[in-house]
Design brief:
The chain is α+β, with helices and mostly antiparallel strands and 128 residues long. The chain has one helix spanning 9-50; strands at 62-67, 70-74, 80-86, 92-95, 100-105, 108-114, 119-124, 126-127.
Length: 128
């Protein structure tokens, strides 16, 4: 068999032209994609700046100041509201001068007072 293959020149040129056009199209798409990505990132940054919440001070919040036996609970004016004494149980404190305890229930701090006739239960906003 004496056969040899000779490709046509026209087909080669067409393939080369398509390849060149495809590369050019890819370059254009990459440029457009970069511009769109930059615009999207800028838009997200602007949105984040607008949505930043302003801190709100809670006048009922109590700040805990550590003392050797437990904590002093201070109000916004730094006045001692109550003194808490540590107990053997974690997150349970005795309130000085009252028939009451402060304990943690889930993520909330609760104040429970029993005067013999009724029980008072209220939530406290304590920052340790």
């Amino acid at each position: 068999m004496n056969y040899s293959y000779k490709p046509k020149e026209k087909e080669e040129n067409i393939v080369e032209n398509e390849t060149v056009e495809t590369v050019e199209e890819l370059d254009e798409l990459e440029k457009v994609g970069e511009v769109e990505i930059e615009k999207t990132v800028e838009a997200k940054e602007e949105t984040v700046k607008e949505e930043e919440p302003k801190p709100v001070k809670n006048k009922n919040a109590l700040n805990a100041k550590s003392i050797p036996q437990g904590f002093h609970l201070l109000n916004a004016d730094s006045k001692i509201i109550m003194t808490l004494y540590k107990t053997a149980a974690d997150d349970v404190f005795i309130v000085k001068g009252k028939d009451a305890i402060v304990f943690k229930s889930g993520i909330k701090w609760m104040y429970s007072q029993n005067d013999g006739a009724s029980t008072v239960l209220k939530e406290l906003d304590i920052k340790f």
